[in-house]
User: Which sequence fits this backbone?
C-alpha cells in the first residue's frame, strides 16, 4: 500500500505517490497489438508535476468543467488535476491495460486518503476514439507520438463537441476550420524541458 503525502501541494503528493513507479516498461504483445489495431502509438512520456500545475492554472478550470486526458498513461495528470481543484468531473482514458490498472490503483489510494478535491474522477481503460466525450469542456492530450492520421481523426471527432471547448495538445494541429490556437506554453515534459504545448479553442462545432 502506498501512502500519498498529506502535503497541501498536489505536485508534491503526486511525486511521493508514484515514487519508483514509471510507465517506461515494455507492454505485453497483446497490449501492443491492441494499440496497433487502434492505429495509434504506445510510446510513453509524461508531463512533469510542476508543468501540470502551470497548465491547470492557465486553463483556469472550475466546478462546471469536465476535463479529459486522452491517453492518460499512469494517470498522473488526472489525479493531480483532481487533487488541485474541484471540477465537475475528471476522466483519463488509456488503451494499455497495465497502465490503466496502475492508474486506477493510484486513484484508489488518493481517494482513500481523502485527497481529492474533485469527487467524480475516472481512470478508464479504452480507446479515446471510441469513448463518449460529449460532456468535455477541456481536454489535454500528450499527443507527440500519435501518428498524424490519428491526430487528424481526433481533431475531426473533437470538433463535434461543445463550442468553447479548450484543447491542450503537446502536438500542434494542422490548420482546420474548427479549432483556433489561443496560446502556446512552454512546459517541462519527461523527455524535454520547455516543450511547446498548444492551447486551442473550439470555435466552430459540428454539433447540431
Ligand atoms: C505520451 S503518454 C501520455 C501520458 C499522460 N497523459 C501524461 O501526459 O503524463 C500517451 C499514452 O496514450 C496512450 N494511447 C495511445 N493511443 C491511445 C488511444 N487511442 N486511446 C487511449 N490511449 C491511447 C498510450 O498507451 C500512452 O500511454
Assistant:
Amino acid at each position: 500500500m502506498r501512502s500519498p503525502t498529506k502535503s497541501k501541494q498536489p505536485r508534491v503528493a503526486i511525486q511521493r505517490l508514484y515514487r519508483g513507479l514509471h510507465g517506461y516498461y515494455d507492454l505485453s504483445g497483446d497490449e501492443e497489438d491492441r494499440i496497433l489495431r487502434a492505429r495509434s502509438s504506445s510510446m510513453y512520456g509524461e508531463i512533469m508535476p510542476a508543468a501540470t500545475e502551470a497548465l491547470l492554472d492557465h486553463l483556469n478550470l472550475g466546478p462546471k468543467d469536465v476535463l479529459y486526458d486522452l491517453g492518460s498513461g499512469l494517470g498522473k495528470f488526472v489525479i493531480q488535476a483532481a487533487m488541485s481543484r474541484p471540477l465537475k468531473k475528471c476522466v483519463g482514458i488509456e488503451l494499455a491495460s497495465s497502465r490503466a490498472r496502475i492508474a486506477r490503483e493510484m486513484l484508489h489510494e488518493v481517494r482513500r486518503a481523502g485527497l481529492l478535491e474533485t469527487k467524480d474522477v475516472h481512470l478508464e481503460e479504452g480507446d479515446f476514439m471510441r469513448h463518449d466525450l460529449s460532456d468535455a469542456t477541456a481536454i489535454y492530450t500528450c499527443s507527440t507520438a500519435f501518428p498524424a492520421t490519428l491526430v487528424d481523426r481526433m481533431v475531426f471527432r473533437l470538433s463535434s463537441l461543445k463550442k468553447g471547448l479548450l484543447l491542450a495538445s503537446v502536438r500542434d494541429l494542422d490548420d482546420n476550420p474548427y479549432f483556433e490556437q489561443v496560446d502556446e506554453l512552454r512546459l517541462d515534459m519527461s523527455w524535454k524541458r520547455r516543450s511547446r504545448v498548444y492551447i486551442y479553442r473550439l470555435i466552430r462545432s459540428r454539433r447540431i
